[in-house]
Amino acid sequence: MPSKKECDLVYLQDITEGRKIVFLKDEIPTLQADKGWPEYAVKHAWPQVKNVPGINKFFPESFKEGKFKDRKFFWGIIEKIMPEWAKSYRNKVIDQ
Questions:
Q1: Whole-prediction pTM value?
Q2: 17, 29, 59, 72: most buried, per Cβ within 10 A?
Q3: What is the pLDDT of residue 77?
Q4: 47: exposed, middle or buried (Cβ count in 10 Å: 0-12, 13-18, 19+)
């Protein structure tokens, strides 16, 4: 789940009505991406994954509007559902 600040009532309703997918905390891999580097900001990575089919089922609607700031939640989901892409992105950032 995202932080309380990012978790609005609409998102909670979407979860309870089955429109959003959530994972238990222990199902999310240990965060590998967040090193505090600006390249790991959600605003840099989201445009590269936002068109992946079904990805919106994991994030609140506010995410589409670019208002989402919860880096730990974002990267946890990305590393869970797209581990190869996350690894590739991480390697690209490190190589820069």
A1: 0.82
A2: 59
A3: 92
A4: exposed
